[in-house]
User: Fold these one by one.
Assistant:
Number 1:
Amino acid sequence: PFLSLDSDPYLVIDSQGHPFWMLDAYTSSDLHPYAQPLMIGDQEVNYIRNSVKITVDAYNGSVRMYVFDEKDPILAAYRRVFPHLFLPRTDMPRDLLAHIRYPQALFEAQAETYRLYHMQDPQVFYNKEDQWDIARQVVTQEDSQPTKPYYVMLRLPGDTQAEFVLLVPFTSHSRDNLIAWVAARCDPGHYGELIFYRLPKEQLIYGPLQIQSRV
């Protein structure tokens, strides 16, 4: 009851062919001082961390909870109350650790916030001179909607090997040309790192709507 559960559990198979459900869990609050509230699912929060990942054995239902954010003060309090409930990340079997992924709901909330808070100059921020939008994509012939973050295999600039990331593109406010994108890394060695790429304003780079129009 003290953790919020992600709405998208997913099934994985370990190296022995044994199936497990994996589920992200959040510590959250709506009482954090001076923090802007956001809707995560049907819950309004202004503090949220994906501090716990849960595995459920698909055969016998046994549950294990692993700590993925040692610095979360809320989880630290829960761990003092329930000292044997939470296991360290290092206890997660390696073949299950290979299947962790950055949660889509959390990343969507972060991207929505970043639309404004990428601006670091106070005057620019106050006037919203460089406001961005989540890039839109076609839903039906008459309608479009903001792009949902999506998982891809991607070789990041400067790297030699593709990795699993969660990505969302941005466009300039009320325009369709691509201005930036943000990716959350999912591979265990870099899990949780957010990478931001800003594209040159003087160069026209097509966004999803423009690409779909050309197609």
Note: The chain is about 20% helix and 40% strand.
Number 2:
Amino acid sequence: IKEKPIFSGRSTAIGVLQNGVILIGTPTGLYLKQSLDHNAVKISDTLIDRCNITDIQPLPDGGALIGTNALGLLHYNTSGRIREIQKEKLNHVRSIYRQNDSTYWTSTNEGVYAFTFGPDWAVSEVSHYTFYDGLPSNSATSVYVYQDTAYVATSDGLGILPLKDSTLLQMAPPDVYLNTLQTDK
């Protein structure tokens, strides 16, 4: 059996979508292969033409989240349209982690972000965690979430972030019982 390369050239990320389409990230843009037998074709989009693609995370609807070094987080939809999706400017996205169908995390030079998406992949909530939240460094390389804890790899070691609502962790106020009541009258 003769081996055939999937892609000739430097690649930085790969994602296989539900319909079998293969997205290939490179330091100079995004390529698409309809199948293993097809040639890779560069996606011509002024938004990412010369952008370094750092990660690709396939989505349940057949699209993908795309991490970049300069434009932050992008959304690739099933019709091939690419758009920016973050509410705030992200620095270099290093990796994308899927927590569930609506929450995705990005590791960046400025900590980690948890994005919660609503209909049409519109951002409904963004949480940002940094050194001030307990990370050893803001230079995060990857994140993994298990139950109610996020584990974040940083350039200075592993950070552990409890994700439970901190108000639930506080002690309840004590019960107060009145034995007597005195008034001015």
Note: The chain has a mean pLDDT of 88.
Number 3:
Amino acid sequence: VYEGYNETVSCINSVIRSLKYNTSIDKIFIINDKSPNSKINSFLSNLSSPKITLLNNNKNFGFTKSVNLAMKKSVNDVILLNSDTEVFNNWADRLNTLSQNNPQIGTITPFSNNGTICSYPTLESKKNIDNISNLKLDEIFKTVNQDKWITIPTAVGFCMYINRICLDKLGFFNDILFGKGYGEENEFSYRLKAANFINVLAANVFVFHHGEISFGKSTILRKKNA
């Protein structure tokens, strides 16, 4: 978490609301990456869910190093979730079930309105169609695409499920090479493929993603450098 107060609150509240539908969520780590936003800091300090652990960075490390710190504190499979996303229903259990049923899977990415190669209805889309709510859209994906998945060349970092076996075998993201963010999940995905795991799209899950909230105007340069 760095910037985007409204998006951050919506994201965290959506995860908390979903807890009653998801038995696979053991712990929630929220990383406050030295946010300059006093409203965000106040909101985070007042969270009281027993499953939430708040990690406060003593300086701004960026996405890559921050998620590495959290992944090292976990012993389970992990889901990396950007702070400008929203999740619905039993989203985590669907990702977890897919992983548990297919040990060759290393990473799982759901569909999104803003997820590059995992975008719906088109790669360029940033909004949903026909005024369907995000909650309803996830329910449609869950029903129509039940148990469906396909292999993809790389995971997409807005919502990224990672098998713990892969983390134990391959290590974490390269936070030296990729700095504060962009491109780290692609490099990790290719290390994973070289170790005979696969990256997949879970066709039965939809996660809403605003996109480019924390990095703002530096997004284009960071993508180019990555």
Note: The CA atoms of residues 80 and 160 lie 5 Å apart.
Number 4:
Amino acid sequence: MRAFFLSILLFFSATISNAQIFDPVSWKTEIKELENGRFELQMTASIEEGWHLYSQSLPSDDGPIATEFTLKESTDFLIEGKVNEPKPKTEFDPNFDMDLNYFEDEVTFTQVIKSNVTDAYKMTAEVYFMVCDAEKCLPPEYVDLEFDISASAVSAETS
């Protein structure tokens, strides 16, 4: 009986140690101060070799999930325009039977905001994204991105 429990324990230990946890994307944030109380938020994804992070623009909802950013609303700032991205690679993906727009290695998304206050403040953006490699896709996930906005000179038109 003791040998039986020992063999079960060894089996589960081997199974657990062989399980892999994939986390192929890491995010970092930076802030570029512009003029008149404006800031460019930079959200950079570092993507492990062999993985694809999808663009914000995909041809259909029938394939992978497009990357999506949400900035938490605040009276401290105004959002100017949409989140920008560089030109993605476009390639036919036989797994989804469509052309897909994606990024490899590293990509920086940018968003311009205009401060309504002169004091420093913190803000949060949320990114929702999905990644795939040649064999599998990981479930979409949410990641919070933090920004520390420095004190700035706000133009008279926002006062």
Note: The two ends are 79 Å apart (CA to CA).
